[in-house]
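All the exercises in this workshop are built on plain-text protein records. A record pairs a protein's sequence with a compact description of its fold. Backbone structure tokens are a discrete shorthand for how the chain folds in space. Once this layout is familiar, the rest of the handout is easier to follow. As an example, a complete record with its sequence and its structure tokens follows.
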Amino acid sequence: MPKPWDSFPEHWILGVPVRAMRMDDVVRAAEAVICGGGGGAADRHMHIGVVNAAKVVNMRRDAALREAVLTSDLILADGIAVVWASRVLGAPLPERVAGIDLMTRLLELADRRELRVFLLGATEDVNAKVAEEVARRWPGAVVAGRRNGYYAADEEEAIARRIGASRTDLLFVAMSPPKKEIFLARWGAVMRVPVSHGVGGAFDVVAGKVKRAPSAWQRLGLEWLYRVVQEPRRMWRRYLTTNTAFAWMLAGAWMRRRLGGGAGGASPTSAKVSQS
């Protein structure tokens, strides 16, 4: 059965198949999966993956991360650098679909349609605060359950089964890569959540622990620099190394394209892992 996102092309950007979708397209697809009523329960899943410059780089270095990301039903450009790269490589994406903005839009959908939401990740204090914020800002949404992101490996299955038993419509996973990607790939069939979305550090922003970059910084693609300013000791080395590596990857892909090696700088010969 066709999926709501099948009509949107995948553009191969530095070896990653990214869907050419706008924010509104993604939200409509999520609503169709949750509320459309078509197909059986097994067909009602939309595992959303997102990539930024750092994750594209780390997918080259970490096979487990790459495989986990590629189990996503659709992959979106969370970082503006990925959108810029798509334009340089002649396979332009329509816009950035930032993970935190998508989370907000999905919570607006949950508010309007009275959907059930499960919150997994962050510290206990932050997770509890996010649940409070959801109840305050999106009162139509039902918090079906919540769990902080600090647990032992042998607790994973129980957490996944708890999420499945909650009958949630939307699952937000706020953990660092590759933990969240591997969790969603490993336990998706057990949880059977219609829409799952890994949101990284978004819970910290919603809870008010971390400030998001002003809109002007976002438009200039400097959201990463704003994070470095807020957390210099933790972030400067990470962004210096990954941004530099991403720039070299893009330069190499651009050169290969100029020499006739393809728009995305990598042939889509490595088959995408399917999730049923």
